[in-house]
Specification:
Structural class: mainly alpha
Number of domains: 2
Number of helices: 5
Distance between the termini: 50 Å
Strand content: under 5%
Shape: globular
């Protein structure tokens, strides 16, 4: 378990560095110059990066132990892969494919099915929320395609 935490911590730090590097390269290549939008986005990115690095350091030291939820990886892959194709954001599709592969590779480590263990009232609430979210997503796609 200790080794997995160190691998996860190193992955977080590498991911944060790549994210910040990508943002800097995008800014330099876009030629937009400084604007309030860019400054706000960059400040949020730096704050999130600092939190991620602090989390990674605490994981490396063994103060935080975490076992990944591979079902969540699978679900992110299921969502991100088609969304990347729809919005022509190929890096999103690549990340979705990677998450999908990681989730399927570790299918034996998925936590028990959460939906089947819920009480009837919780199931009805979850179904209602999924229907509402589905309608909102469909409305967003329609608005995006019409306008």
């Amino acid at each position: 378990m200790e080794n997995k935490n160190k691998i996860l911590a190193a992955s977080i730090i590498i991911g944060v560095l790549l994210l910040v590097l990508g943002a800097i390269v995008w800014f330099l290549l876009s030629g937009q110059g400084f604007s309030l939008w860019f400054l706000t986005s960059f400040i949020v990115l730096v704050i999130l990066a600092l939190f991620a690095v602090i989390l990674a350091i605490r994981m490396w030291q063994g103060k935080i132990k975490h076992e990944p939820d591979y079902y969540a990886f699978f679900m992110m892959g299921v969502v991100w892969l088609p969304m990347g194709f729809v919005f022509e954001m190929w890096p999103l599709s690549v990340m979705g494919a990677i998450f999908l592969i990681i989730g399927l590779k570790n299918k034996s480590k998925w936590k028990k099915k959460r939906f089947s263990e819920m009480e009837p009232g919780q199931r009805k609430l979850k179904i209602a929320l999924m229907i509402i979210l589905g309608i909102l997503v469909l409305g967003g796609f329609l608005a995006y395609s019409v306008f």
